[in-house]
Amino acid sequence: MLYDFRSFINPGYYAFGKGSFNHLNELIDRKKSDAQSWSVFMIDDYFKGKELERRLPKSESDLVIWIETTNEPITSLVNRYRDEIIEFNPTLPSVIVGIGGGTTMDYAKATGLMVTNPGDSADYQGLDLIKNEGVYTICIPTVSGTGAEVSMTAVLSGPERKLGIKCDYTIPNEVVFDPELLSTVPAEQRFFTGMDCYIHNVESTTGTWINSLGSAFAEKSSELCLEVFLNTNTPRIESDEKMMVASLLGGNSVTYAQVGVCHALSYGLSHVLGVHHGVGNCVVFNQLEEYYPEGYKQFKLMQEKQQVELPTGLVAGCTEEQLNQMVETSWALEHMWNNAFGADWQNHISKEKIKELLLKM
Ligand code: NAD
Ligand code: ZN
Question: Ligand 1 centre and the CA of 243: distance in Å?
């Protein structure tokens, strides 16, 4: 232990259970102050033309922004979405609703803040740099595992680094957990995002920053992940509901502790090569048996049961410059190394070792 004392914030409201999405209009109406009040829906473009689009409780005066998820969130697009909102209607929206996975929810969280904070979102990457509270944000996960729905971070890649905007205002004000929205997630994606959660738990419980609160969240979360990915006979709706809870608990486990070796390396991979977070974590974790032997064993069991192949040779074709950039991105994530190994972390890991691990991926 660790950094400064902090009292952590959580979302103000949780709605939970099948059919919760049907009540979104009530949640939005509650925030409307007058007849001119309007809302923004930021929604994963997977849902374009699908039933969920028709179910959006939107009116003529609302704005819908479709989020493309090929790439993970970038600061320049957050700025663009903010401009689009202000051009659409210069009065502040009463609510921003983010519907999708970690990518979409992080866009909603970051954009909601940038509407009330001037300038470039890249200038706010870091801890407590945001000055003003954002627009009331409702997050609705449609694939579970990242914990973005309960975290006080919006992870963004900027011109210089992959780093979250992190402060009390980044927390969503409200979360709607409806497992029915997860029913269409393909098995492989479900595994990759689910393993993000499992890895959050492994890294928090084995780290030096862990305490009883973080452990309690992580232990229950891991138990649920194992049920979801090992008990393949459970009806999908039941296991999706469990995965939603696992994600919520896993997100809180890292709030009260921190991630570690896997996330530090995977941020390097995704910042330089654009590898998606869930996939990148699995590729990295697959090489981390020496650091996380127990977690590794369970991870391999779940992978085998789910019959998911991991990409290989991601780093093989990289230039020396790209490789060095990955190493520097990882090395800079001091808080993750500090959690993994303690304050003397530089005695436990070197840039050469990071390079050696990356070259296996
Ligand atoms: P994602 O949001 O990128 O979505 C992955 C894929 O699943 C996309 O193709 C999407 O269209 C699809 N999808 C989503 N819902 C679907 C549904 N119901 N049916 C069919 N397809 C669906 O993936 P993710 O793993 O949830 O999020 C990754 C992002 O989360 C990364 O940008 C990462 O940095 C971020 N993240 C944030 C935090 C945080 O605390 N803020 C924590 C971990 C990860
Ligand atoms: Zn993660």
Answer: 14
Tell me if residue 206 falls in helix, strand or coil.
Answer: helix
Q: 183 vs 13, 82, 141, 157, 239, CA distance in Å? A: 24, 31, 12, 29, 10
Other C-beta atoms closer than 10 Å to the C-beta of 159 total 10
pLDDT tens across 235-273, in order? 999 999 999 999 999 999 999 999 999 999 999 999 899
Domain boundaries, the chain: 13-182, 187-358
Hunting for tokens 């230039």 — which residue is that? 319
Crossing angle for the helix pair 187-206 and 334-341, nearest 10 degrees? 60
Structure tokens of 95? 């609510």
147 lines ligand 1 (CB under 6 A): yes
CATH superfamily of 187-358: Dehydroquinate synthase-like - alpha domain (1.20.1090.10)
End-to-end CA distance of the chain: 31
Write out pLDDT tens, residues 127-153: 999 999 999 999 999 999 999 999 999
The DSSP secondary-structure symbol of 19 reads: T
Can you tell me which atom of ligand 1 is nearest the CA of 181? 18
Taking the centre of ligand 2 as the mean of its atom positions, its distance from the CA of residue 315, in whole angstroms, is 20
Classify domain 13-182 at the CATH class level: alpha beta
